[in-house]
Amino acid sequence: MTAQQPSAVARHYRQGGLLRKIDEALDRLYPGHTTLTTDDLHGVDEFHIGGHAATRELAEHLELRAGLRVLDVGSGLGGPARHLAQHAGADVTGVDLTEEYVDVARRLTDRVGLADRARFQQGDVTALPFPRASFDRAWMLHVGMNIEDKGRLFTEISRVLTDNGLFIVYDVMLLGDPTLVRYPLPWASEPELSFLARPQEYRSLLRRAGFDMVAEHDHRSRAIQSLRDAGDAHRRISTPHNPPGGDTPPAPINVAMGIDASTKIAKLLKNIEEGLLAPTELICRLR
Ligand SMILES: C[S@@+](CC[C@H](N)C(=O)[O-])C[C@H]1O[C@@H](n2cnc3c(N)ncnc32)[C@H](O)[C@@H]1O
Question: Which residues form the Methyltransferase type domain (predicted)?
Fold first, then answer.
């Protein structure tokens, strides 16, 4: 990663006023609500294909129990981390490059009363601000597509995990010709910010960083259905007074994606349907 890339990635995600947009989306979802639970936030706080259903399924593979220390690599708005804290009683630390996301993640976590079990800090996951063996588990949901130096990323994760620690990657990976991939996509408006890699590159870099592969799942078919649903939800909420794109409230599920959400969803769907990209889960264990 060049010195310019982390700030360009953070600029891609930073919206300004994101908490207000989330509150507006929550008001539309739950008119007159006074209190919130983690479950109420699912429509707005998860930024990966499959949303909360995917989070729940991946969480099963982490073999968690109360008190285990989990690192959420590129934690976004904190939805996946809160799920682990709430439903598995894990002690979760999220790290993310984008200040605004970290701020929103903390505030939402405070609101649902989980601040003692889910913490968030700003940082670059290719230089993790933690000592060796600080965590029992780690996961990374839809982050590697923004990271050029995945070798360094996985070496960092292996450094902060304890021996035998499980690590789950759930990224959109490259299957076809990279020159045919269409943009904008949710993680990069143009190809310069996108660092797609093939599953075999991930596997080889993970092995080199000290991980053994445990399992691999291709989530293409679920992705196609879930992206069609997300596109439909966006179209339903878009009216002549609230067109897709521009400075208008997006459909709740697309809040984190900002403007052009419907175009980004449509391009991602097309790339997956054409067999160029696939959301892929790799489960591995530190040797
Ligand atoms: C598509 S979002 C996924 C967020 C979250 N994992 C989720 O599934 O809801 C990608 C996230 O990766 C973060 N990110 C990208 N590159 C990063 C880096 N080098 N260090 C830390 N976070 C990074 C972005 O700020 C963004 O929050």
Answer: 71-169
Q: Would you tell me how many other CB atoms lie within 10 Å of the CB of residue 201?
A: 14
CA 126 to ligand 1: nearest atom: 19
Give the span between the Cα atoms of 215 and 277, in whole angstroms. 19
Q: What does the pLDDT look like over 91-110, one tens digit per residue? A: 999 999 999 999 999 999 99
Ligand 1 centroid–CA 75 distance in Å is 6
From edge to edge, which strands make up the β-sheet containing 118-122? 118-122, 91-96, 69-73, 135-141, 161-174, 277-286, 211-218
| 43-80 confidence digits (pLDDT tens) | 889 999 999 999 999 999 999 999 999 999 999 999 99
Ligand 1 within 6 A of CB of 146: yes
Provide CB contacts within 8 A for 239, sequence distance 6+.
Answer: none
**Which residue, 175, 195, 201, 185, is CA-closest to 279?**
175
- Spacing, Cα 169 to ligand 1 middle (Å): 12
